[in-house]
């Protein structure tokens, strides 16, 4: 079969190679899945660079999220068991963690429902306890992670402010349903958010960016507000001033969604049921901006790493349906 292999760490476009390799053999408790669509996530970029908290042995195949087909023909979504990731014709996954793909979504959309939407659901509902009527601010609102949080926030009855970088991404954020869109390239984020909230600030801030975005968050978080730290796509990990959190009376919440797979897997299943229901009634729908063939995966992963994509890019192997 064909699979992308990473033999050394570096930029995705330089270290990902499409090769003919043996089909992976499932271990105990694992299943073999034919990849119907694989969604590209920022961890794929970080793993290529060697900067992710999980470092699979070299060589490995990236791709942490797929819609696949079991040997008995069931359509499922899964996180492949590395080093046999999803940018390949076949992958393996832990059988206990395989979830049914929602009938309301096509393969590319189903592949994109898992990591980003699970992260958003846990961040907004489990960690921040977002309530209807509150104001939610989402950084990188037009991206894969941010777009999921925007849709989940709207579905929960929140007023959503989306922060983006550039006019094209601002248009995407508006289409997603953001009540207010702030273009950080042409506007003062802090001033714009304060104006939009009458000086009160945002009750919940969803931050997959870090760096300057986190600094802005601390300036616009409301009294008893919650900042959910999801990741550091900017490449800069903030060093929070805890005296500032004390003086302004806000909470900093960390979220590592992957831990729930081992610490509380029943919650992951419950979340999937909630997401499936929301998708069935059209309240959420993954924004798949591109569908590329397997041969285009390295370029697409690089573009995500360069910050020039919107929504999700799905890799669709030859012969699979999108």
Folded structure, characterized:
This protein is α/β, with parallel strands linked by helices and 322 residues long. Helices cover 33% and strands 25% of the residues. It contains twelve helices and 15 strands. It has helices spanning 12-15, 42-49, 107-111, 115-127, 144-155, 167-176, 189-196, 212-220, 242-248, 260-263, 265-280, 297-305, and strands at residues 2-6, 16-20, 30-39, 66-69, 75-78, 90-94, 99-100, 135-139, 159-164, 180-183, 202-207, 221-229, 251-254, 288-293, 312-316. Strands 3, 4, 5, 6, 7, 14 and 15 form a seven-stranded mixed beta sheet that branches. The protein has a six-stranded parallel beta sheet with strand order 10-9-8-11-12-13, sandwiched between helices. The protein has a two-stranded antiparallel ribbon with strand order 1-2. It starts with a strand and ends in a 6-residue tail after the last strand. 51% of the residues are buried. The model has no long low-confidence stretch (mean pLDDT 95).
């Amino acid at each position: 079969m064909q699979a992308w292999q990473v033999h050394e760490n570096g930029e995705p476009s330089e270290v990902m190679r499409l090769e003919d390799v043996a089909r992976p053999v499932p271990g105990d408790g694992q299943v073999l899945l034919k990849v119907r669509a694989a969604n590209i996530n920022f961890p794929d970029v970080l793993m290529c660079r060697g900067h992710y908290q999980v470092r699979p042995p070299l060589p490995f195949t990236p791709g942490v999220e797929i819609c696949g087909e079991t040997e008995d023909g069931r359509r499922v979504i899964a996180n492949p068991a590395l080093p046999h990731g999803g940018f390949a014709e076949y992958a393996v996954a832990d059988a206990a963690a395989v979830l049914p793909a929602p009938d309301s979504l096509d393969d590319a959309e189903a592949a994109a429902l898992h990591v980003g939407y699970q992260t958003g659901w846990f961040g907004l509902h489990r960690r921040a306890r977002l309530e209807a009527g509150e104001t939610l601010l989402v950084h990188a609102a037009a991206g894969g992670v941010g777009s999921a949080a925007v849709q989940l926030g709207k579905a929960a009855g929140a007023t959503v402010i989306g922060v983006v970088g550039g006019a094209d991404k601002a248009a995407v954020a508006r289409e997603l349903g953001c009540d207010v869109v702030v273009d950080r390239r042409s506007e003062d984020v802090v001033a714009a958010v304060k104006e939009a909230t009458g000086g009160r600030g945002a009750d919940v801030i969803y931050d997959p960016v870090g760096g300057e975005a986190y600094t802005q968050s601390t300036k616009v978080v409301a009294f008893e507000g919650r900042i959910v730290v999801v990741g550091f796509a900017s490449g800069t990990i903030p060093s929070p001033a805890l005296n500032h959190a004390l003086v302004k009376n806000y909470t900093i919440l960390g979220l590592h969604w992957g831990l729930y797979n081992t610490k509380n897997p029943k919650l992951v299943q419950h979340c999937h049921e909630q997401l499936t229901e929301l998708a069935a009634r059209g309240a959420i729908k993954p924004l798949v901006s591109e569908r590329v063939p397997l041969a285009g995966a390295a370029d697409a992963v690089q573009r995500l790493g360069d910050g020039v994509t919107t929504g999700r890019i799905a890799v669709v192997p030859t012969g699979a349906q999108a």
